[in-house]
Amino acid sequence: MSEITLGRESSAVAARSASNLCRAVWRWHFYAGLMVLPFMITLAVTGALYLFKDEIDGAIYSNLKRVAVEQTRVAPEAMVDAALSNYPGTAVKYTGPATPENSAEITVTTEDFGKLAVYVNPYSGAVLGALPDRGTIMWTIRYLHSLKYFGDTARLLIELAGGWSILLVGTGIYLWWPRGKKGGVVSVRGKPKSRMFWRDLHAVTGLFVGFFIVFLAITGMPWSGVWGEKVNEWANGSNFGYPSGVRVDVPMSGEHLDHVAKTSWSLEQAKLPESSGVAGTPIGLDKAVETFDRLGLHRGYAVAIPRKPEGVYTGSVYPDDASQQRVIHLDQYSGKPLIDMGFADYGLGGKWMEWGISVHMGQEFGLANQLVLLAACLGIVLLAVSAGVMWWKRRPAGSLGVPPLPADTRVFRGLISILAIGGIAFPLVGMSLVVMLALDWLATRVFRPALA
């Protein structure tokens, strides 16, 4: 056999191998799309809206949240009294104005209406009105985005969607890779009537938004049910739920900070300290706010009001700039700071996660952050729509149109090995991968004619 013939056969084998691998990757890219594209559309739309939460809520509830600036201000306790006179109950939290044009917010637990957010003019002390606590339009959008409306079990879907979207990007990049081609790499060929147009539009859009999909998936993982909790423990240690190195040599209660004052991801497991001298006289909210101001808490901080003799005043703030996050617990009798910690006290993992979450929510870099992520969200919707149109144009009549199996199924071994790495990093994704492998095996032997 001549060297030319051997060379041709070698080239043919290499071409078949590449074709088989491409088919295998395409098949799993299709499966990943089935898993996450519906979620990605929902997450992209709700996420795009939530990027502008302050602007939207400020416009809708301007009568509650905006006030005219005056010279003198009313004391916090007077604002709480005004809120309680209009909405009798128990005041559990005071949130000071974030800017001179903002109202104060008093959270009141009532018997008739549940927990309310009562808005008070900080200059006149007039009550402007009330809403259910976390009852604004943007809180509704946030709960839809995180699937919180559907219970804790739905949080597992966040991890599945995040893990499979990373898989979607990885397989998509492989399929996009030029391999000597020029058309459809960074340009779109054909017209909307042709499948080529939608294929190129899908590929080019995926190229530009793939980075954002991976970033948003990873930074959204802290809210997942399994991965988020385990990484939280790893990032923040077990120092009463505080990052290692934070001084907690004070009496600690069994209550968690997140239960009395919603906190950052890094402090969800943090426990509250206890006040000493329970027979003494509490310093009161006015003195607590004065202390927090003196300690330099960022404006717009919230104060959780103690409801038990051993409780503490907790001042917490999580502004757009993640580096300004801070939580201070005061003894309610002496006013002494028991625990004072901020972003600088987080571990390295906690800092990266908090910074990523801040960027994810469009906060860290102001308007530029919002606009870039808005473009990414629109790109994700376009990516999903183009995938659906492309599939519909390719799908044979009466079948699901699953990409064909490679001629040599041994190529799956390497692909599955790579997928298994992602399955180990994200346990729920790994479990779903096993399920998908089983279903794929069953489909190719029982339902192959209908799916092909």
Automatic annotation (TrEMBL):
The chain crosses the membrane at residues 28-52, 156-177, 197-218, 371-392, 412-439. Pfam families: PepSY_TM. Signal peptide: none annotated. The keyword Transferase does not apply. It comes from the Bacteria. The keyword Membrane applies. Keywords: Membrane, Transmembrane, Transmembrane helix. This is PepSY domain-containing protein. It comes from Aminobacter anthyllidis.
